[in-house]
Amino acid sequence: MIISILGHGVVGKGVWDMLQNRSEFTVRNVLVKKGEKTASFMVESFDEVLGDDSELVIECMGGVDPAFKFTSECLKAGKSLITSNKALVAAHGIELMELARERNLSFLFSAACGGAIPILQNLHLARQSDSILWAGGILNGTTNYILDSMDRRNLSFEEALGQAKALGYAEADPTADLSGMDTMRKIMLISMVAYDVLPNSDYNLEGIQNVSACDFEVAKELGYTIRLLGRCGLAASGRLYSYVQPMLCPLSDIFAGVRLNTNLAQYQGQNSGLMGFSGQGAGRYPTASAILRDVWSVLGGQKQMLEKKCLVGFACNDAAECARSYFVRIDDEGLEKLSGKVGVQRIVRKDNGKTFAITDKVTIKVMHDAISELRSKGHVVFFAEMKEEA
Predict the structure, then answer these.
(1) In contact, 303 and 100? CB cutoff 8 Å
(2) What pLDDT, on a 0 to 100 scale, did the predictor assign at position 390?
(3) Are strands 204-205 and 240-250 parallel, antiparallel or unpaired?
(4) 377 is catalytic
(5) What is the pTM of this model?
(6) What is the pLDDT, as a whole number, of residue 388?
(7) Pairing between strand 262-269 and 132-138?
(8) DSSP, residue by residue, 289-351
(9) 261-278, pLDDT tens digit by residue?
(10) Which of 183, 333, 342, 388 has its CA 20 to 30 A from that of 69?
(11) Catalytic residue among 79, 86, 186, 354
(12) Given this model, what pLDDT does residue 202 score?
């Protein structure tokens, strides 16, 4: 099989390196930025890739523009497509699927969620014989490294973030990771594969920017630690819910034991039960290995990970299945306002003008809406779902 690669950064170089050891594949061209060509296999013009004899293009550029333009043109030119670009698939996956299906080409993206962890391919296989009740987990290594460092090494948020950057776990601009948007994009991909719905609106999103050392201190006193999780699933009505938010996990819980930059993805099958996949969720060779897994799938004849009926849809986070209790850190005035909207089960601690409390059960949408309103009025709030014992 003849392959061309778009991009020669961290992941693209890993793909190039791994393909050199496989006699079944020939890399025709690798697209690099202008001025970065250092070897004969590199090209600086996309037109050279578009016009070459490659049967498969692997996109490793990242971002949406010009990745969408390049990948759609490759499909129109009769080249199958593999990508590890979650932002691209979340924004244009359905369009790329349709282009590939019209031309009987392959479009696979298992490396776009969880790096080396085979969560998307397993969901694709599982749903052919089972119903997926819910899916998700710890899907971002940067945030888990920060939270684990604050938990076990008592680092401040700033110290943990600095170390994550120094180790290459965090980008120079880590906004997508810290805000939870990176995790949400992966939840979008999981939802597309498991439920044929791309939840591009009405989902609820909360990252870790507001966590502090005092939250871990109080959580430990309660027998918990803090992790960032995303999840999607079907409510009794058949509508999809999807969200990302911090979670207080009991110390005995499997998520509490996820260390450093490790990911842990799970899904619950109606017949298969709980399934879990743990490993490196990012990095040059973990991600490249997942791309090579997709290459072998294309070679074996796999065309799609998405069903023809996959559509853009809305999240339903106000369903009864979305009722949770929350841990909250807030000022006293803010707590009084919050109590009128969600109800407070008990006060855990009062400390230097901050109150730590546990709320009554409330749906995800109601809680996120209430916190958003409080923040708009100047209140500083940290909140996290209280995970129930398994």
Answers:
(1) yes
(2) 57
(3) parallel
(4) no
(5) 0.95
(6) 84
(7) antiparallel
(8) HHHHHHHHHHHTT--BSS-TT-EEEE--TTSGGGEE-EEEEEEHHHHHHHHTTT-EEEEEEEE
(9) 999 999 999 999 999 999
(10) 183
(11) 186
(12) 81
